[in-house]
Design goal:
- The complex is a heterodimer of chains A (352) and B (410).
- By secondary structure, chain A is mostly helical.
- Helix content of chain A is 70%, strand content 0%.
- The radius of gyration of chain A is 29 Å and the shape is flat.
- Chain B is of the alpha/beta class and 410 residues long.
- Chain B contains 17 helices and eleven strands.
- Chain B has helices at 2-24, 42-52, 69-78, 93-97, 106-111, 122-127, 150-155, 167-177, 195-207, 218-232, 245-253, 267-273, 310-322, 327-331, 348-361, 373-388, 394-409; strands at 29-35, 57-63, 85-89, 129-130, 133-134, 137-138, 145-149, 185-188, 257-262, 278-281, 299-303.
- Classes of the chains: A mainly alpha (352), B alpha/beta (410).
- The A-B interface holds A 99-104, 187-190, 208, 210-213, 216, 296-303, 316-320 and B 67, 70-71, 74-75, 77-80, 95, 99, 101, 183, 192-194, 237-242, 251, 256, 374-375, 378, 382, 385-386, 388-389, 391.
């Protein structure tokens, strides 16, 4: 795409109106450079302007302009919908915010006071620890069970794909519904889980999953594992089906047993899938809010409280917006790390 | 140039439209009312009736969800889009009045022939007060009392005409009524870590001589110890810690709890669901002759300070208040008024319960009022939960809460 000197090398970035003005200033130079037929060129500004516009349009249709438009839309969308709120949130964590200054942007700055206050609170460290346990426990459970199921259905017995589809039901259900159902399952006095454990002889007395501080966090983890396993299974199934079968045939000919085949073929071939799933799992578990709201509300005594629920509680139950924002900033840092891992592990998928 | 031209044209167009609108009904003042009431509840019906009066004031109604009332109101006020009138939960009232967001109605009320402070129960009235002035009008009220299953009382050899009157009697009765083999707990209540927990515990603390400013008073510690006894001895389900009042009382209705502490909002469901003879009695007190207290719930009306038509808005509130006498009959809610006698419903259990609740209302105390109520309430909830889960002794837990509350009160 040749540049016209009158609009300069930066012409692409100028507002359209400005560009047109400049073009109108020097109609003949443009037209002659574009090599239009001489008869049309001189003294016919209307047509002259038409040339560059056409050029611009064709660039948008099929050229670098097209690329830029393609990138600009999602970038603009991302900036408006995610970037601005994120920056606003970071800004808020350095300010003193109360409900009546919510509508203003420039509130009194307090530096790192919100962060210092946060870490001075006795519940902060236990809640961070809970978050770590929740994330690690949920991902471990979802991944291991999901991988097990994926391998199981990979055997491809009759009806395997059907059954695999049915497993997705849990993933399709909204978190609040899942939470309400698990609320009943986990209920202390009449819960199904207690009934099964009691009849199975595992426990003698009822466990109050939601109300006993020793169990409450694990109750939510249990529900979250159930919710997320199907998603893990599907992604891992896709990864498994991408492994060429001849690799296994060759290994079998060489006398490798099932365990060796799994360890030396399946796992290495699945590395990027596993990396992506664990990074996605980190993001999904850090987002998990509905289950806490539905099952324990973070209680009793914060024993099942995690940062994502706590941030909401601070902002919208106690109206400590700055503190809620501060907690969110801490979470953003963790999610960013997870995103980097995710992007890195999926990078060569893009190349292929 | 172009932009300015368009702006001028736009402004002219707008002016034309609004002129047209004004000329259509030049005399009507438009008000907006926000409340959480659904179509079978008072606010939208009162608004419709008011609009039918055709007195030159037209009200537009908007329903907001319970959880969004405060945040929505704050957002609207801070961006200058607040409604004229809002219904706000009573513990949140002070938050707005202390910041000058609500209009001081003291003068208008003193001149009013409809809204008279002496006609209201003291608890609800206090919740609209800030700094000795009135910033609202109580919309309705409710409180909590003790429901008990008369049939179970008889089976366990207790006198159904003598329900427990003191804390000790309550624990005794709960011990006798608890029957793990039959899946029956003695008592159902809520110690949930939200406003419901505070709502249920504060009356106990107040009866013990405490208050939110003095939450670690000896009597309040005693109250929490009683709660802990009830939980530790499994006289109430351990799920009391995570269950709200509605779900807790549900176990009473299904016959899995012999007594329940809850409010009049349960009456309709209970008359339908409970397949046994039940009664209601006043909340038990620490010992015979001790001062009574109870929780106070429900919403208040308030006018935003930013309203352009405060006089008209107050007129609307006067109309709402004038309809208070029909509130229980039409909508099943209790007016916050001591001068209105509520007619019988014809259902004996419900009518008997209503009498007890009206008596209990005389002792109802508001939570606060304090602009930082959510933080105070959170400190109390944390103490309840720490004590009941055994992570702190009742005394230590309430001492901690007192310290947190002191920091909030400044």
């Amino acid at each position: 795409m040749p540049h016209s000197p009158s609009s300069g090398p930066s012409g692409r970035l100028l507002p359209a109106g400005e560009r047109l003005n400049r073009m109108a200033d020097a109609p003949s130079s443009i037209s002659s450079r574009k090599g239009l037929p001489a008869a049309q060129a001189p003294g016919n500004p209307v047509r002259d302007v038409g040339g560059p516009i056409k050029r611009l349009l064709s660039s948008v249709r099929d050229g670098r302009g097209f690329d830029i438009v393609l990138v600009a839309f999602p970038l603009g969308f991302l900036f408006l919908m995610a970037g601005l709120p994120l920056l606003y949130n970071v800004l808020m964590s350095f300010q003193e915010v109360d409900m009546f200054s919510l509508g203003t942007l420039m509130r009194p700055f307090v530096g790192l006071k919100n962060y210092r206050d946060l870490f001075a609170q006795p519940e902060t460290l236990p809640i961070l620890a809970n978050t770590a346990i929740f994330v690690a426990g949920s991902i471990a459970g979802q991944f291991l069970i999901g991988f097990g199921l994926a391998l199981f259905f990979w055997v491809n017995f009759p009806g395997a794909s059907w059954l695999r589809g049915l497993f997705l039901v849990s993933w399709v259900m909204p978190g609040l519904v899942v939470g309400a159902i698990w609320n009943w399952i986990l209920s202390g006095d009449f819960g199904v889980l207690n009934f099964i454990l009691r009849e199975g002889g595992v426990i003698s007395g009822n466990i109050f999953w939601r109300s006993d501080p020793n169990y409450s966090l694990y109750a939510v983890i249990l529900a979250n594992i159930w919710l997320g396993t199907a998603f893990n299974m599907i992604l891992l199934s896709v990864g498994l089906s991408g492994i060429p079968a001849d690799l296994y045939e060759a290994a079998e000919l060489d006398g490798a047993n099932a365990w060796q085949r799994f360890w030396t073929i399946t796992l290495p071939m699945m590395r990027s899938t596993i990396g992506a799933i664990i990074a996605l799992g980190l993001i999904f578990t850090l987002q998990q809010f509905d289950l806490f709201a539905a099952i324990t509300s973070g209680g009793p005594n914060n024993s099942s409280n995690v940062t994502q629920y706590w941030a909401w509680e601070q902002s919208f139950r106690q109206y400590a917006f700055a503190k809620g924002a501060t907690i969110s900033v801490l979470m953003i840092i963790f999610v960013m790390i997870a995103s980097v891992v995710y992007v890195r592990s999926t990078r060569h998928e893009v190349r292929g | 140039m172009g932009i300015r031209k368009y702006a001028v044209i736009g402004a002219l167009a707008l002016a034309g439209v609004s002129l047209f609108g004004l000329s259509a009904k030049a005399e009507d003042v438009k008000l907006t009312v926000w409340s959480l009431d659904r179509d079978i509840q008072p606010a939208p019906n009162l608004v419709a009736e008011f609009n039918k009066l055709n007195n030159g004031i037209q009200i537009e109604y908007r329903q907001i969800q319970f959880d969004d009332v405060v945040s929505e109101a704050m957002r609207a006020y801070s961006t200058g889009q607040a409604p004229d009138i809002i219904a706000i939960d009573n513990p949140e009232h002070a938050l707005f009045s202390s910041r000058g967001a609500f209009l001081d109605l003291t003068d208008m009320i003193s001149k009013s022939t409809v809204i008279k402070p002496e006609n209201y129960f003291p608890g609800p009235l206090k919740s609209v007060e800030w700094d000795g002035k009135y910033y609202g009008v109580p919309k309705a009220t409710n409180t909590i009392a003790l429901y008990y299953n008369k049939d179970m009382f008889k089976v366990k050899g207790l006198d159904p005409s003598k329900p427990p009157q003191t804390w000790d009697e309550l624990v005794d009765a709960a011990r006798k009524l608890t029957d793990p083999a039959a899946n029956v707990y003695g008592l159902a209540f809520s110690a949930k870590a939200n406003e419901e927990g505070t709502f249920q515990f504060l009356p106990w603390a107040q009866m013990g001589g405490g208050s939110y400013e003095n939450i670690n008073a000896e009597g309040a510690v005693k109250a929490l110890e009683i709660w802990k006894t009830i939980i530790d001895e499994k006289l109430a389900s351990p799920d009391t810690l995570t269950r709200g009042q509605w779900d807790s009382t549900g176990t009473f209705n299904s016959g899995n709890a012999a007594m329940a502490i809850s409010g009049p909002w349960e009456l309709d469901r209970m008359t339908q669901e409970a397949k046994f003879d039940w009664g209601v009695t006043l909340l038990p007190v620490p010992k015979e002759g001790a001062e009574r207290s109870s929780a106070m719930g429900d919403f208040n009306w308030a006018i935003f300070a930013s309203s352009k038509h405060p006089a008209e808005a107050f007129k609307a509130l006067e109309f709402f208040a004038s309809q208070d006498d029909k509130m229980f009959k039409n909508y099943g809610q209790l007016p916050a008024r001591s001068d209105i006698s509520i007619p019988e419903t014809g259902q004996p259990l419900k009518d008997a319960a209503l009498k007890v609740f009206l008596e209990q209302l005389k002792y109802a105390k508001p939570r606060g009022p304090h602009p930082e109520w959510p933080k105070i309430s959170k400190a109390i909830q944390d103490a309840i939960q720490a004590a009941l889960t055994g992570q702190a002794s009742p005394k230590d837990a309430l001492d901690q809460a007192a310290e947190k509350i002191k920091a909030v009160l400044g």
